[in-house]
Amino acid sequence: MTTQDEIEKVHGSGTHVLLLGAGASFASTLKNPEKNEKKLPLMWNIVDIVGLNGIVDHLPDDYRALKHDFEKLYSKISNEGRFPDEKEVIELEVYKYFEQLDLPDEPTIYDYMILALRSRKDVIATFNWDPFLYRAYVRNGKFTKSPGILFLHGCVSLGFDKSNGTVGPAGMYSKKTEQLFEPTQLLYPVDNKDYNTDPYIKGQWDSLSDRLEIAERVTVFGYSAPISDVEAIDLLSEAWGDVEDRAMEEFELIDIRPEDDVRNAWNRFIHTHHYHYCTDYFKSSLALHPRRTVESYRHWAMPLSPGEMFQEGNKIPDNFKTLEELWEWHLPLIKAEEEFYNNAE
């Protein structure tokens, strides 16, 4: 296909699910540093970056030994119940730090991701607490409708109205119910994250499960599928189903770890050779075929020209300086979609 062929080839069906872990946010801040020059904490350095040393250093030796494995440290504090005041302070400080993070004014990988998928059929689900996905969603919403977004571990930007189960900006009040959108819980003991008790988290997982069941493509960006997150992987696997029944779907992995390690971590989701691995977002299907990821896969899978899927059919440049430039590049794709849907109605 030529570039123009790819732009004009629009299918109304075919779901693409993008699953994000901490590696996605880290990659985004490497390309475009956080607006206020704050560092993005990861589980091994969150105590140092958030400034929790003053609390952790006064805990017993067996707690301090877990300083560089924050999930295990928090689990120990939460499960043993010996330091409730310290637990509360840790929760507040983590929430406050992540709440202060912001996107820079220039386009980031998050803006590219939002625009790479489509509102009627695709979804982005994240395990990250940071506000990057939500803020990219909001600011690109001024240009076009965005794909669905889900927050599987909560998010500092979003709150939950328990009176009717709706989601809105954390700390704001619902115009409909006049109830507070209460901040979502971020921290869970690693050995019992219990995604079913909290109604907000359960709703996010239920929505993801519905999309995974029908997905033709899944991209996992920077999520390592850690052994500690057993419940999450089980829920994903249950929604994906028996891998022998997913012979026509494609699993994509964006990760800086060695390919064999990443492939083995996601083995239960991959049918034979139906996967793609890369270390850079701009080598993924999302960048090679933005807004046409399913169309490009179908063209490759049923046809005439195997290997075409990961050629640069309509690769997006990675050097836009303003959101307006990024939006202008996407205009032909969006106009073709609008024409398709108008003709179909």
User: Which class of the largest domain in CATH terms?
Assistant: Alpha Beta
Topology as H/E string? HEHHHHHHHEHEEEEHEHEHEHHH
Counted by DSSP, the helix tally is: 15
CATH fold title of the largest domain: Rossmann fold
Helix content: 40-55%
| Overall radius of gyration | 21 Å
Largest sheet: 6 strands, parallel
Question: Which regions have little confidence, pLDDT < 50, spanning 5+ residues?
Answer: 303-309
Beta content comes to 5-15%
Distance between the termini: 27 Å
Q: Tell me the number of strands.
A: 9
Tell me what the CATH architecture of the largest domain is.
3-Layer(aba) Sandwich
Mean pLDDT figure: 93
Please state the structural category: alpha/beta
Shape: globular
Strand order of the largest sheet: 3-2-1-7-8-9
**How many structurally independent domains?**
2
Quick overview:
By secondary structure, the chain is α/β, with parallel strands linked by helices.
Walk me through the topology:
Layout lengths: L2 H6 L6 E6 L1 H10 L14 H5 L2 H4 L4 H4 L5 H11 L3 H17 L8 H8 L6 E4 L5 H9 L7 E4 L6 E4 L4 E4 L12 E2 L15 H16 E7 L8 H11 L9 E5 L4 H7 L9 E4 L6 H4 L4 H9 L21 H22 L1
Parallel strand pairs: 1-2, 1-7, 2-3, 7-8, 8-9
Antiparallel strand pairs: 4-5, 4-6
Describe this protein's structure.
By secondary structure, the protein is of the alpha/beta class. It folds into 2 domains: 3-35 and 104-153 and 188-344, Rossmann fold; 46-100, no CATH class. The protein contains 15 helices and 9 strands. It has a 6-stranded parallel sheet, sandwiched between helices. It starts with a helix and ends with a helix.
